[in-house]
Amino acid sequence: MDNEGFVVHPERCTGCMLCVLACSLHHGNRFDRRISSVEVSAFGKEREMSILIHEAREGERQACDYCEGEKQPLCIKYCPTAAIVRR
Amino acid sequence: MKTTDGRILRVDLSTGEIRTEPSWPYAKRFLGGRGVSQQILFNELSPNVSTLSPDNIITFGTGPLAGTIAPAACRLSIDSKNLLTPGIGSSSCGGNFAPELRFAGYDNIVVRGKAEAPVYLFIDDAHIEIRNASHIWGHTTWETDSLIKQEIGDNDIKILCIGPAGENLVRGACVITDLEKAAGRCGLGAVMGSKKLKAIAVRGTGSIEVANPEAFLQIAGEILEKLRANEFFKRRGEVGIYGQVQWGESFLESPWRNFQGGYAPDPEQTARIHPDAFYKMKEKAISCFSCPIHCRQLHKVKGGPYDGLLSEGLENNDISLFGAKLNIFDPAAILELRSLCNQYGLDTDNATGAIAWAFECYQRGIIDEKTTDGLKLEWGNHEAVIELITKITYREGFGNILAEGSKKASETIGRGSEMYSINVKGQDLMETIWSDKGWALGVVLSARGGAHTRGAVFGLRFAGMSSKLSQKYYGVPTIGVATGYEGKAKLVTFLEKLEALADSLGICGFATLIWAPPPNATTPQDLAKLYSAATGLEIGDEELMTAGERIHNLEKAFNMLHAGWTRKDDYPPRRFVKEPVEMPGPLNGECLPEDRWGKMLDEYYDLHGWDKKTSWPTRETFEKLDLGDVADALQKAGRTT
Question: Would the ipTM clear 0.90, i.e. be above it?
Fold first, then answer.
């Protein structure tokens, strides 16, 4: 699944949530999954993963700003398996 | 919430009373997680309360770093009175439950009492509900996870539960979260079962604020980079927790046929349970919360009687126990056995302890088919092992005897079978301890009974580490000299503190110096920086390690009060003292002679400030650790040195 600026590879995702945590710290100076622009979910015994990068604000959830002010998007920086990479 | 604003949730299942209180008054001195839980147990449990009594307390605690981006901040410590020993029970698990609990606003859950009928606890942020679980009682852990998620209508909710083994009060019953992550030891699943508490479900939608976010992210980022650069972790992340396993003569890690040897003598058998055999079945890697290591692999069996089985998180223990200990050299069967134990909520270490004891008794003619319900307990008979696991879980026939653990089972059978129960203080061992002296000392002196995650050092894995590096990170030059005694007492005291620290902050020990070689592993200095940035308190590593020592001494105090153990209880099982390994290789002849062990004990007690005759901390030691109130309580009970 593609997003503008990012390519996500859910099959590489291990579900560590480091991207979600880093993103929420960027947006709100706190660890808060609700405000993160990255949403990661696991499904079933197969642990199938989904990675969504929200590009529009939805309620408390912040729109991805590609980590304005950072050298690189934090989700990319902190992902240990390159499940989120630059396009 | 701010890191220091978490609450303790207290639930009385007898009365239905639910209340909360701030955790900080406890956490100031005991950090969180295991430390805070231990304080509650010491203060609130009378020595005459039995483990399965409604008056017993079980706690579920996580630490101030859980839920943050601190690497591997995922641990939940479950603490209660032990069901296999008369002392403290304590076991931890990773996964996602602990962070979810923090997002709901709680650091610890304290449960006492007993429900009239099966219940589960539903924590939905501030809304707490004790729900009927009669329709879930009897189901496996996997079914329970699914049923509760369906009932609440939320796939993302985090579940912690017991299986039929816990319901049936099996002494080796464990607690399972995220399907296959277990808090295995000490019979804590049966404590939940005795309270008719089938599960805890938590949904947390809140946030966690650290005092200094910028510094916190910087420190966490530096540690993450270290962990990602460590070859040890790379192997774990790619192959699994068992990635470093090297079964064989140079390690003696395998309790061959109930510790009748230290490795499988047939290299062909060893090859069949080599990590590569399991790696072929790998589907993908799975992480616990905030962990970059992703050491838990998901395996899928293809073909054969277990075709299609999905099993997550295979550990060294499983291969060692089902492989070498019970002589099952079929990787698919090992995955099936592990998976079955997880579904039943039965700890693999404790279950295989009792089963291996039975196999050795059968080998020696102490028991026969008349005792075993007709089962032929011939080494390697994996169908018999499957049947025994089921019989133990449901306490059927011979399984009802084994459900008590090997120590009590041997007391029931008698006829010399006691010799083959390999336990420490009542808890079955999974560890071989002939050769690696720091490993042996930590395993035998563990406050929760025989077990290795309380100070034992895996010296054979650090073999060859330079004395300079060892001195710098562990305070002794000899971590890499596994078979030597020099420095091992000091090393164990260091790791005891670090283990207590990690468990109390909510950090997984796998990511730290305890399990991984320096420099690229989390150090006490790293933890102090994270703790300071999270809480806003400037605390150095020495002060934090002193808190770890405080927690360790508090557990010792619990054991003084409840178990009354003294120095004589701190010796290894006879097999490791009197029966040196007789297997070809560099470790042939290794054992733990009583006189040499005694000298190591003296050194260990001295380092702790514990009396050499009784093994008990002196009043001065307690006071030095800000545990004067604990010394007072012990004095009142007549337990002083």
Answer: yes
